[in-house]
Amino acid sequence: MATNGSTTEVDTLHESPVPREVEKGTQNLSGIEDPGSTVNEIPDGGSAAWLVVFGTWCTSFCSFGWINSVGIFQDYYERELLKNYSSSTIAWIPSLQIFFIMAMGPVVGRIHDIYGPRRLILGGTLLHVFGLMMASISTEYYQILLSQGVCSAIGASAIFQPAISTVPEWFNKKRGAAFGICSTGSSVGGVIFPIMITHLITQVGFPWTMRISAFLILFLLIIANLTVRQRIVSTKKESKKPNHLQPFREPKSLFLMGGFFLITFGIFVPIDYVVVEARASGMSNSILQYLVPILNAASFFGRSSSGLVADKVGRFNVFSAVCATTGILTLGLWIPANSNAALISFAAFFGFFSGAYVSLSPALVAEIAPPEEFGYRSGLLFMCASIGGLVTNPIAGAILDAENGSFTGLKVFAGVFCLFGTAVAFGARLYETGFKLVAKY
Question: Rounded to whole angstroms, how far apart are CA atoms 166 and 168?
Answer without folding.
Answer: 6
